[in-house]
Amino acid sequence: MKFKIATLPGDGIGPEIVDQAIKVMKAVGKKFDHEFEFNFAVTGAAAIDEVGEPYPEATHKICLESDAVLFGAIGDPKYDNDPSAKVRPEQGLLKMRKQLGLYANIRPVTTFPSLLHKSPLRKDIVEGADFVVVRELTGGIYFGGKGRSEDLKSAFDNCEYSTEEVERILKLAYDYAGKRNKRLTVVDKANVLATSRLWREVAQRMEKDYENIETDYMFVDNAAMQLIQWPKKFDVMVTENMFGDILSDEASVITGSLGLLPSASVGKETSVFEPIHGSYPQAAGKDIANPVATVLSAAMLLESLDLLEEAKAVRDVVNRSLDQDVVTEDIAGDKKAYKTSEVGDWLAANL
Amino acid sequence: MKFKIATLPGDGIGPEIVDQAIKVMKAVGKKFDHEFEFNFAVTGAAAIDEVGEPYPEATHKICLESDAVLFGAIGDPKYDNDPSAKVRPEQGLLKMRKQLGLYANIRPVTTFPSLLHKSPLRKDIVEGADFVVVRELTGGIYFGGKGRSEDLKSAFDNCEYSTEEVERILKLAYDYAGKRNKRLTVVDKANVLATSRLWREVAQRMEKDYENIETDYMFVDNAAMQLIQWPKKFDVMVTENMFGDILSDEASVITGSLGLLPSASVGKETSVFEPIHGSYPQAAGKDIANPVATVLSAAMLLESLDLLEEAKAVRDVVNRSLDQDVVTEDIAGDKKAYKTSEVGDWLAANL
Ligand SMILES: CC(C)[C@H](C(=O)O)[C@@H](O)C(=O)O
Ligand SMILES: CC(C)[C@H](C(=O)O)[C@@H](O)C(=O)O
């Protein structure tokens, strides 16, 4: 089969890690007889530098026409700490999410036995943790009205959710839970926020349609604690945009394998697959960044195209690379550190 | 000297743990020749049951007339999972904060050597962590306009901050940092939120007036990660209300000593001192809850009255109780577990 992959390397280490995912996908194509057409487009600081804005129309068009989007990372230190900057790379990300309607961000949090010693948590607490954080991605305070009062002396951000938005993301989360261990934790702040009370109402209604799934409710502050105290108790956690931003990042570090975790942002037309780590500018161009999170994002991409066997082949070769210590310096420890490109070559060759 | 202490035991284990703090304060009064007048008032579910609302005017009056407020905990399971309940215990807490103008919540996060094994974090990561989370407590999305659209199909919560509100809390945080290790981390989401950009602007302006203090800025998602990865790097962290709710709870579990951590909520007229743990309804009336967080809150209360030596005496006796394993079942492990009241008696007798 033939697939169009919009390819957005972005900033920092983005290009080098995306290159490795492409190598692996090409190997998949060869082995399983598919053709992937990689259509490159700019985004982030790279796009600002080139065309003055972080998610140009041309890039959007390429994404819209794609079967899936492979994304690197965006962000450049020259835009940080400058609250007055008019154009920021992150705006590109938000615009992409909005324009492509990427309403659900999915982050599987898995532990890798060989990396447990890198976890900041005690081994007995984290070993075997395996859950998914589902974050609403196109609503809430991110996309509500925001600005300054006329005298500039105060600022506001509005958070809003509609019943449809809540239903849509809960449905996806329930479906995910149905394919996994049949437990869904709905995280909100219903003791304070009106939007959270809407979420809880909708969930309490939908709960009845998913009788085989055990739903529980948790306040966001409590969830922030339980993620650290009992990460193994979670199966699927679903929450609104801002809470999801915080909790999914918190969840990502408990495993010690931040450099290995993939994500999917699901839209109606197309979906975007990217590592959860950032653009890591200090490492850019040095061929030292860990490409595994991007390669595993490519595996999620393959899954979204219903290429399940192909996705499994990618996961398997990644696991073998970890077992055989074919890894970059961030996780090599005392052993030999492979270059980014060497890991990519190995994965492609051994698929 | 004579001091008026408004005493609000609240719900669940509130009454029994507040009792122990009172015992200890009475012992302080005897030893240092002060008189504490404890004026009791209802709050939370207890107040709803008694007078139909969770922060009655009579309670407010007693607080206003006090030199400080000693608070237990509020919350009752019968109000959970009922998004439609018209009166909720938590509303009492929010009303108290607003009416008393408790603009800053201060939470020292300290590790106790004898409890490190209870931490979900690796010992090498958490040992020696010692920082303070300062949370803005009367602004932001908690107190902005909120509600439903007319057709009930959508809900909204507005977040707002004024320059004065931001300046006030940052000033307090800078003063705290000045008395500690002279580092302040300002946590926001300035890459997305207009209110966060206001926070960052104000902080960048004030930074220049506090040359002896090192200010750094961190996005809230990143802070949620770094709290777990490198808790020792923080000194004072300051943030807005909603982020502070999440981060301060996250911070509180990394030490393994949740049952021991106190807090202060600072207002202009009076301040409120309370344990950070909740009302723990399952344990109510069983004389098993850990009173130490409340006793240490009393120590913060004494400090706020400029009774520094007295506060130190309370901390010292708490440390001795821990060294000598005079502790409740939550931390007793294989050793003998003392009752709540026994720990209180021991602390009062050994002060
Ligand atoms: C860069 C930023 C706007 C973005 C977000 O907050 O959504 C990022 O933190 C993420 O989680 O993808
Ligand atoms: C009970 C709730 C309203 C409250 C809050 O969110 O502020 C609590 O979580 C806290 O942190 O004191």
Automatic annotation (TrEMBL), chains A, B:
Its main location: cytoplasm. It comes from the Bacteria. Residues 4-347 form the Isopropylmalate dehydrogenase-like domain. SMART domains: Iso_dh. It is an enzyme of class 1 (oxidoreductase). The keyword Metal-binding applies. Its cofactor is Mg(2+); Mn(2+). Mg(2+) binds at D221, D245, D249. InterPro entries: IsoCit/isopropylmalate_DH_CS, IsoPropMal-DH-like_dom, Isopropylmalate_DH. Pathway: Amino-acid biosynthesis; L-leucine biosynthesis; L-leucine from 3-methyl-2-oxobutanoate: step 3/4. Homodimer. Belongs to the isocitrate and isopropylmalate dehydrogenases family. LeuB type 1 subfamily. Catalyzes the oxidation of 3-carboxy-2-hydroxy-4-methylpentanoate (3-isopropylmalate) to 3-carboxy-4-methyl-2-oxopentanoate. The product decarboxylates to 4-methyl-2 oxopentanoate. This is 3-isopropylmalate dehydrogenase. It comes from Algivirga pacifica. The lineage of its organism: Bacteria, Pseudomonadati, Bacteroidota, Cytophagia, Cytophagales. The gene is leuB.
